[in-house]
Write a structure and sequence with these properties.
By secondary structure, the chain is of the alpha/beta class. It has a single domain, classed as 3-Layer(aba) Sandwich (UDP-N-acetylmuramoyl-L-alanine:D-glutamate ligase), CATH 3.40.1190.20. It contains 11 helices and 13 strands. The strands form 2 sheets. A 9-stranded mixed β-sheet has the order 5-4-1-8-9-10-11-12-13, sandwiched between helices. Helix 3 packs parallel to helix 5 and helix 9 crosses helix 11 (288-302). The radius of gyration is 19 Å and the shape is globular.
């Protein structure tokens, strides 16, 4: 099944303790699309300026990403500049230039409107609903958001969440959105607003999924992050995770609990590759064989047996 994503395509300048890049390909929709494309065809909706490089367009197209929804506008492509210290969970924004992204008004090509799997990237919730209204009968709608929208457009975000099946969000933003310090209570509260599945990203500590079972009881699944010795650039890791997760769900055309759990592991696998190099360099050279092997390693890392009969003292 084709997967539709709306988000940003950008040029990033990033510095970490292990190096730096200038004007490298980035943006939420870019990371998401390259990751998801390992599992299913992707339809990308975003905007770029006249300065967007042909080599970057060619990269996306070579990975089965349909650019029919990529608008080329007068002006420059969105720029972001950031720096990380040794705590790679925390990015410090140095500069943001929205450029053509400030005028982004997503218009979906006719064939994109038939998409059955939809991911609303981290953009203005008004724009998220605009896209959602253009898709005729999606099977699964997932969405990302951030503290900026939670603070500035809370009511609009709540309207968007009414039409969302799965919310992907980090732990601090989960608490902020629900105004609850306890993550479990926060997830329960958010699930009353629309999404029946909450996937909470926790950076180097992994991910937790909250949902409801057939008896309307809380169902929780947790997975650690893949242990890596070399982490160079965490930029886009969350978007890469979401792409791997949604790509697997769309590629298998399943949305049961088992599929969601498997999708979360594939998302974690993709994110673990992404951070091994700057920008999209690792995703650009990655093979599906490597993805499968790491998935199996992940299963081995997280496997444990049932308790055998214990002698009590």
């Amino acid at each position: 099944m084709a997967l539709l994503v709306v988000g940003s395509v950008a040029y990033d300048s990033v510095e970490t303790p292990f190096g730096k890049v200038d004007q490298a390909l980035g943006g939420s929709a870019t990371y998401f699309s390259l990751s998801a494309s390992f599992f299913t065809p992707v339809r990308l909706v975003a905007c770029v300026g006249k300065d967007f490089k042909q080599e970057h367009r060619a990269l996306l197209e070579s990975r089965n990403v349909d650019l029919g929804g990529l608008q080329v506008l007068e002006g420059d492509t969105f720029r972001w500049s950031g720096a990380y210290g040794y705590d790679l969970n925390d990015a410090r924004t140095l500069d943001t230039q929205l450029n053509v992204f400030s005028d982004f008004n997503p218009e979906l090509p006719e064939d994109f409107r038939q998409s059955e799997y939809l991911f609303l990237g981290n953009i203005d919730p008004d724009l998220q609903r605009n896209v959602l209204a253009q898709v005729r009968a999606p099977k699964v709608v997932a969405c990302d958001t951030m503290n900026y929208w939670i603070d500035g457009q809370f009511k609009s975000l709540l309207e968007t969440l009414k039409g969302v099946d799965l919310l992907v969000i980090n732990d601090a933003e989960t608490r902020q959105l629900a105004q609850e310090s306890n993550l479990v209570k926060a997830a329960r509260k958010i699930m009353t607003w629309g999404p029946k599945t909450i996937v909470v990203k926790r950076g180097e500590y992994g991910v937790v999924k909250f949902g409801l079972n057939s008896k309307n009881e809380l169902d929780v699944f947790g997975a650690p992050a893949y242990p890596l010795e070399d982490v160079f650039d965490p930029t886009g890791a969350g978007d890469t995770f979401a792409g791997g997760m949604m790509g697997y769900l769309a590629g298998t055309d399943r949305y049961d609990d088992q599929a969601i759990r498997q999708a979360i592991i594939f998302g974690s696998v993709m994110a673990s590759f992404n951070v091994e190099k700057f920008s999209v360099d690792r995703l650009s050279e990655l093979t599906f064989t490597e993805v499968e092997l790491r998935y199996r390693e992940f299963k081995q890392i997280t496997h444990f047996d049932d308790v055998v009969e214990l002698e009590r003292f």
